[in-house]
Write a structure and sequence with these properties.
This protein is α/β, with parallel strands linked by helices. The protein contains 17 helices and twelve strands. Helices cover 45% and strands 14% of the residues. The strands form two sheets. It has a nine-stranded mixed sheet, with helices on both faces. α7 runs parallel beside α8, α10 packs across α11 and α15 packs across α17. 38% of the residues are buried.
Length: 361
């Protein structure tokens, strides 16, 4: 068998997790020697008799090679810690996985920023995540997140809209879509970035998988941006892990009365960098880029009639009720409804339920 076959085998022995793999490698140095070991297994501290039996019974050369070839045919690669394509950043965390499954392409040395936040985010948070994902991607930065509902999904979408690359770290096998509505997004990411997981192919998502996934998100990244997070959330766990790994943490400030701002504001209190635009991140990671403002960002009102510009200027990323727009713009309500429809068709605003509107960045 080849070296990667031994690594794949070691990472798929039932009941043998990271801690026990570490015990084994500390004693044997390489997976091949673990495969060949018999009586020596009893000398490895931390292993039980049931573990030794599991190791011996799992030695099926044909089965391992067949599994390796099968996932390759599905365009899934397995990279061990010894592989040149295993992310360098990930090697530097305390509890790195000994192997990862990748569907897509991670052959890129561009800076990587993680964007994480609440699953049940506000529309404001969703738009901000898209904005940062898109604008950072335009500057050649890879966006990494967990493909969860809410902020994660918005950040991935923004990166793709910006024509950039994005990585999704999953709490399941890289062939399992979760949440199910992200099937198209998952497919797009696999072609314009990569799906990454330490969990085997066909592994369904489990609650305990997601905290493990978070350490990989922060581990691969050069910094973590948190957009909307309650006082206790998985996003804060990711931020804590990033700090432990020596990574920069950035936070979008929010209103002190909002529950989803509690976590982000506390991060700023504890020393995270407050971020209000992408330059706050670019300055920190010292990215070399040509700073040219994109036309669709600086000239979004080009082509709008004067009365449409008035209505557009009344809006922001905070949802505004149509009656409040009427008061601010002093435009008759019937005429205002028509203008709002035109602006929505032009793709510069978005209508929310119950006649609320926001800018679409």
């Amino acid at each position: 068998m080849e070296k990667e076959h031994y690594w794949l085998w070691l990472n798929n022995i039932k009941g043998i997790g990271l801690k026990k793999i570490k015990y084994l490698l500390n004693y044997f140095d390489e997976p091949k020697y673990i495969w060949e070991a018999t009586d020596e297994l009893s000398e490895v501290k931390g292993l039980r008799e049931i573990d030794r039996k599991a190791i011996i019974q799992s030695r099926n050369k044909d089965k391992i090679i067949e599994y390796y070839n099968r996932i390759k045919k599905s365009n899934i690669n397995f990279y061990s810690i010894d592989d040149d394509l295993y992310p360098d950043n990930l090697k530097n965390i305390y509890d790195y996985p000994y192997g990862i499954y990748v569907k897509g392409d991670i052959k890129d040395d561009s800076p990587i920023i993680a964007v994480v936040g609440a699953r049940r985010c506000t529309e404001y948070g969703r738009e901000v995540a898209k904005l940062f994902g898109r604008e950072l991607a335009k500057m050649g930065i890879i966006i990494i997140s967990g493909m969860a509902r809410g902020i994660d999904t918005a950040a991935h979408i923004g990166a793709l809209e910006g024509g950039g690359r994005t990585y999704a770290v999953l709490g399941s096998g890289v062939n399992i879509c979760y949440p199910k509505e992200n099937y198209k997004l998952m497919d797009d990411i696999s072609h314009k970035g990569a799906l990454i997981s330490e969990f085997p192919v066909n592994q369904i998502p489990k609650p305990g998988n997601f905290p493990l996934r978070n350490r990989i998100i922060s581990g691969i990244s050069d910094g973590v941006l948190v957009i909307e997070a309650a006082g206790k959330s998985g996003s804060l766990i990711t931020a804590d892990q990033a700090l432990e790994q020596g990574k920069d943490v950035y936070s979008i400030p929010g209103r002190i009365t909002d529950k989803l701002s509690e976590g982000t504001n506390n991060l700023i209190k504890m020393g995270a960098k407050m971020v209000t635009n992408i330059d706050d991140i670019l300055d920190e990671i010292s990215v070399s880029f040509t700073k040219e403002k994109q036309k669709n960002s600086e000239n979004i009102t080009l082509g709008l009639a004067e009365i449409e510009k008035i209505v557009y200027s009344c809006l922001s990323l905070e949802p505004l009720f149509i009656d409040d727009i009427h008061i601010k713009s002093n435009i008759p309500i019937d005429e205002l409804g028509l203008i709002l429809t035109k602006l929505e068709l032009k793709g510069v605003i978005k209508q929310l339920p119950n006649k609320y509107f926001i800018r679409k960045l």
